[in-house]
Specification:
Length: 476
């Protein structure tokens, strides 16, 4: 909280003058000892100006508190304006965010546009090559980034946008920055927000604008270092797990759970991320806007089986690609892959995928693939097999075959995507119901609590559903 003081106007001390008053042989003398007695308020009409000035002072603290109380109850928020990291050029941001942490929107820069999607603490970006080059996002499958959704660390863009603009988190952050009672004035600023009479209120690091009309609502904020409140950052995890295998990826049973990358990500907790410079308008979105956001997310989720993962770097070890073939044309190809960590400061388990092509000019091509989760600093062996199914012959013939293997990443399997779609559908129904009823009911569980419970149940049930055939990864 800031502490601001108001200083009373300094008035000159004026001595009192008048005729001397005598009583007998003595005289009465008025002495001024560093102060004066101001009797001006006894004049007819005097004191009206002081009362008017007192009435004109609009204390900022209760106005801001009322607006932030209102903001904290919003089931969703729409953010539009300019935002930047440090000294970087600003983005034109257009975001819609639910209080479940689900987010969708765009960041428009001078040379590129980034589409942003986050759900269940999985952050995905879609952008063209110039953006990835500017972010030094080099990876074994970076050439596929322009055509794919890419999962990144939640702090890849700085302080996570879904946390920064979460209605309750934003209300808490601004409350911590707000003025003490009686220390600042809410000043009328009619031109700050188009179509709405607003008060401008000073806060640490900038200003916010609140509607003059009650109930007061947050309309705009201009903050130089907007970040995630400490309490919210402490609750966030590193986010994301390496996804388990789907049965049909290589026609094999899933590996044991201790090897399939389903454990929590290794490494220390994610940092809160660098703060944002932001000058944005804030409003509670319409029901149609929120419905459109969820419809878009559900459609885009269908593409996530082919999404790539940039949270850690993976690569081949020094071991050579191995191939073993037997009589009849069955061949097994093996390769060793390691998780080399990340420059982002957060190490994550990443699902590595090997796509193999075994070729012979006479026999043609046969393909197979395998994938496993790889923990930071560890390596795994990927293996898959093909079968040319050669017919038995009285005079066996030998064929020379070659194997090529391509290494890539996958962010989510078919099972995980199905779980995410189910979660989004549940959130959509809950939030649209809240918006239809004018906001969240304090007597009911909030959408955020419901989402967290669903997420925990999904995590507990994930291993149980791995043995089901849900289509697996697309061969891309």
């Amino acid at each position: 909280m800031t502490s601001r003081t108001r200083s009373a106007a300094v008035r000159p001390v004026t001595g009192l003058r008048g005729p001397a008053v005598a009583a007998g042989l003595g005289a009465v003398v008025l002495l001024a000892g560093g102060c004066s007695i101001d009797l001006s308020h006894l004049r007819p009409g005097a004191g009206d100006d002081a009362e008017d000035n007192q009435e004109e002072f609009q204390d900022a603290a209760p106005v801001l508190a009322a607006a932030l109380d209102e903001l904290a109850t919003w089931p969703a928020v729409q953010v539009d304006g300019r935002a930047a990291q440090g000294e970087d050029a600003p983005w034109e941001a257009g975001l819609v965010l639910a209080d479940t942490g689900t987010l969708h929107g765009t960041l428009d820069g001078e040379d590129t546009q980034v589409e942003v999607m986050e759900a269940d603490e999985h952050l995905f970006l879609s952008a063209e090559t110039p953006f990835w080059l500017s972010e030094n996002a080099y990876a074994v499958d970076a050439d596929a980034y322009p055509d794919s959704w890419v999962q990144v660390d939640r702090e890849f863009l700085g302080a996570n946008l879904a946390d920064v603009f979460h209605p309750a988190h934003l209300a808490e952050e601004l409350r911590e920055r707000g003025p003490d009672e009686g220390s600042a004035e809410a000043v009328e600023d009619p031109d700050a927000v188009e179509g709405t009479d607003a008060y401008r209120i000073p806060v640490d690091g900038g200003d916010v604008w609140v509607s003059q009309e009650e109930p007061h609502q947050l309309l705009r904020l201009q903050i130089a270092d907007l970040a995630v409140p400490d309490t919210a950052a402490d609750d966030d995890s590193a986010g994301g797990e390496a996804q388990p295998d789907d049965d049909d990826e290589a026609g094999q049973d899933p590996p044991d759970s201790e090897d399939n990358g389903t454990e929590e990500d290794a490494g220390e907790q994610a940092p809160a991320g660098d703060p944002w410079r932001a000058d944005v308008t804030v409003e509670q979105p319409s029901t149609d806007t929120v419905e459109e956001m969820y419809d878009t997310l559900l459609t885009e989720s269908e593409e996530l089986t082919g999404a790539r993962d940039n949270r850690s770097d993976i690569g081949w070890t020094d071991s050579d690609l191995g191939m073993d073939c037997s009589v009849g044309g069955a061949c097994t190809v093996t390769g060793e892959v390691e998780n080399q960590g990340s420059d982002q400061g957060v190490e994550s388990a990443v699902r590595a995928r090997m796509d193999v092509t075994v070729s012979n000019p006479d026999l043609g091509d046969e393909t197979c693939n395998d994938s496993q989760g790889v923990e930071p600093g560890e390596s795994v062996e990927l293996s898959c097999g093909v079968d040319f199914a050669l017919e038995p012959a009285s005079a066996p013939e030998s064929y020379e075959v070659e194997a090529d293997a391509e290494l890539s990443t996958r962010a989510m399997t078919g099972n995980a995507v199905d779980d995410l779609v189910e979660l989004l559908e549940e959130q959509r129904e809950t939030i649209l119901d809240q918006l239809g009823n004018g906001g969240a009911d304090e007597d009911d569980d909030t959408a955020t609590d419901a989402a967290e419970n669903d997420s925990d149940e999904d995590a507990d049930d994930e291993n149980d559903t791995d043995d089901e055939d849900t289509g697996g990864d697309d061969d891309t």
